[in-house]
Amino acid sequence: MELLITSAGIAFNFLKRSVPGLLIGIFIAELLIEKGAVEKVSFIGKPFVKLSNLPGECALTFATAFLNTRAANAMLVDFYREGKIGRRELYIASLMNAFPAMVRHWNSLIPVLLATLGKLGLLYFGILVFIGLIQTTVFAVAGKILIKNPREISNPQKQMRKKKPFKEVLRNALTKTKKTSLPILKTMVIVAYITALLIAVGFFNHLSDLVRSFAQSLPFSPEELSVALSAMAGSIAAYTLGANLLKAGLISEKALIRALLLGSIFANITFLRVLIPYYVGLYGPKDGTKLMLISMTTRSVIILCIIAVMGVVL
């Protein structure tokens, strides 16, 4: 009984933080659709969408991801459930949001990185954005190969000519928000509780211990590994520890960047607690799990390649 109560508390705390942002994101997405905002902002994503053979309206979701990733992904789910895009387009469009999603975090990451690492922090953020750009490009090229007959969702020109009263726009957006969010929330609540049970029984702590044991066999110095492993406790912990080691002359700038990048892979174990309910709640158990694993694996491979190049070239 105590385990069930503890799990319920963990799940409630997660949902308390996540649900409001999700609902706001879905509402923003529906409002943008109702307002016919495709032509106003989609130019940002058009080059990537054109390369990937996605429908032109997916440029809106790409542009929206720079402001709110949840809104962008909710918009894609809405398109998919209405039959406007297929599963293949859903996967490609969602995975392509890696670059804008990374840029989106500038306001929370840059102040912390500057405060702890100074100019080196800016360089590290630039590398993270570059990794996101590579991810987006990889999936855009995959779309070019996999999507043979790109479809059009609607005619943006007609959409722009039909101006609706704001009250009607607001009413329609609220109605569609309710329709879209209810099935997502039902799944998210269930998955959040299951994830909370796993947290309560120590499943993720066990995974972290396995990663720590595995890390000892990697070709990195003790200082690098200490920074990388501290990322599982939180990015700020890794930045602070890295800054102190750098100041004491115990680690070089290159080694610290490598350690932080490796740490961002290790941190996936911690992020699973949040990512599982989010992905499964939004996309469903099958598609959500696949998208999460594809995204994490692709990003990890790119990071490992960059670490390897840094070790050889720099």
Helix content: over 70%
Counting structural domains, the number is 1
What's the total helix number? 17
Order of helices and strands: HHHHHHHHHHHHHHHHH
The N- and C-terminal alpha carbons lie at a distance of 55 Å
- How many individual β-strands? 0
Which range does the strand content fall in?
under 5%
Largest sheet composition: none
Alpha-beta classification:
mainly alpha
Keywords: Membrane, Transmembrane, Transmembrane helix
Organism: Thermococcus barophilus (strain DSM 11836 / MP)
Protein name: Nucleoside transporter/FeoB GTPase Gate domain-containing protein
Transmembrane segments: 122-147, 184-205, 225-246, 258-280, 292-313
Characterise the protein shown here.
This protein has 314 residues and is mainly alpha-helical. The chain is built from 17 helices and no strands. It has one domain. Helix 13 runs antiparallel to helix 14.
In short:
Helix content is 82%, strand content 0%. The chain is built from 17 helices and no strands.
Properties at a glance:
82% helix, mainly alpha, 0% strand, 314 residues
SSE order and pairing:
Elements: H1 2-35, H2 38-41, H3 46-52, H4 58-64, H5 69-81, H6 87-95, H7 98-104, H8 106-117, H9 119-146, H10 156-161, H11 166-200, H12 203-215, H13 222-230, H14 235-247, H15 253-266, H16 268-283, H17 285-313
